[in-house]
Amino acid sequence: MLDGAPYMTKRRIFFRNNGLSPIDIIKWWRYQKKLDLKWPQFDNRTVIFTYLGRIGNAMLCKLWHIQSGDEILVPSYNCGSEIDPFLCFGMKAMMYRVDSKLNIDIDDLRKRISKRTKIIYVTHYFGWPQHLADIAIFCEEHHLFLIEDCALSLFSNSSEGPIGRLGDAAIFSFRKTLPVPDGAALVLQSNSMIQSLPETHPAFRTTAKEVAPYIVRWLIHSMQNRALLSNAIFFLDQLFAHNDAQHLQSDNLDMPKDYYFSEHVLPLTISCLSSAILRTIDPEEVFIQRRKNYHQLYEGLADIDTAKPLSGALPEGVCPLLMPLVVPDVFKWQRELRRLGIKAIRWWEGFNKKLDWGEFPEAKKLKNELLVLPVHHYLTSDDINYMIHCLHMTATAQS
Ligand SMILES: Cc1ncc(COP(=O)(O)O)c(C=O)c1O
User: Fold this and answer.
1) pLDDT tens for residues 129-159?
2) Residues with CB under 6 A from ligand 1
3) 280 C-alpha vs ligand 1 centroid, how far in Å?
4) Residue nearest atom 16 in ligand 1 by C-alpha distance
5) What is the pLDDT of residues 281-301, one digit of tens each?
6) Of 9, 105, 229, 245, which is most buried with the most CB atoms under 10 A?
7) Could you tell me which of 118, 123, 130, 126 has the C-alpha nearest to residue 93?
8) From the alpha carbon of 149, which atom of ligand 1 is closest?
9) Could you write out the DSSP letters of every residue in 130-157?
10) 89 with 71: CB under 8 angstroms?
């Protein structure tokens, strides 16, 4: 069924609508009710809504009276934007090893603790929970703060329950998982007191810029005759993918400028629009559909020897953000998949230049070579079948 009709499917999957019509946006733009999400990970916790997840990390530096020269242990595989607030508050970030399967090397972590260590920072990658029981006990014994970064793991669970409830604090970043232009949460134990909460909504033009891609996707998706426009967008996409390929293979690529922390965002809270959209989200629905999509894609990849899911089959409780994939030549695979209309992304390319990456070849390899595929909850079973078909075509072409 797929051979004859890839073009329609290609357009559909690339522009798959994520539910934000211009009418909804206008209706919700000035939404004023206070946000109160009855999600299990926030139950019986102090939840502070922020514009970006990284603001939560900056707030923790203030809350915990961090002094210049205090140390934080951070995972070697990181985006860079989550670490930067700590550096701006004068902390020294010491990286600890995360292996090529994204597991924390606890021995390495312990080795790096010093008298000045104040915080241990752990990241739950792509929805998969880290095993934190030992680390949590260790932190308690040594009077260290534990932060759980749940930016990539909304609605996921570990054997202890929803992710993000074991540490002293957790951060979430909603726009990674949900169709919101901004919005994040800093989650603290329920007895925490925090002064000067972020209260300023982002400026109109900031939200407008973030929401523009949603409107474009909605328009293209809704138009009857969209061949010209969608072709134009594909063309641009491939042009950028091609340009990407020029500066590749570099361990020295800087992360994008706006990943570096700027204190002017500190007073910003979530936009009214994001608050309104979040109230319409059913976590159970998102959880079920993402798991279904991941599972289908995983099964469909079983007979491709060259493309291997990094994290294997889906454990119970995990709400996958994406499918991380290990392929022999990430640039060729990305180019070919994007040509076929699949939004394949090289995840976290670019390095925070304030960190010393020399000791962490596995993390560098992940940053340079990991490809991720969408499994989001707006994709249907047909979309996933089309992706599987494209992955087979790509594997054959590259062999
Ligand atoms: C793991 C992780 N944590 C935190 C952040 C920061 O989130 P935000 O962009 O909402 O500040 C990011 C951003 O990409 C991230 O990848």
Assistant:
1) 999 999 999 999 999 999 999 999 999 999 9
2) 52-54, 79, 81-82, 123, 149, 151-152, 173, 184
3) 23
4) 79
5) 999 999 999 999 999 999 999
6) 9
7) 118
8) 3
9) P--HHHHHHHHHTT-EEEEE-TT-TT-E
10) no
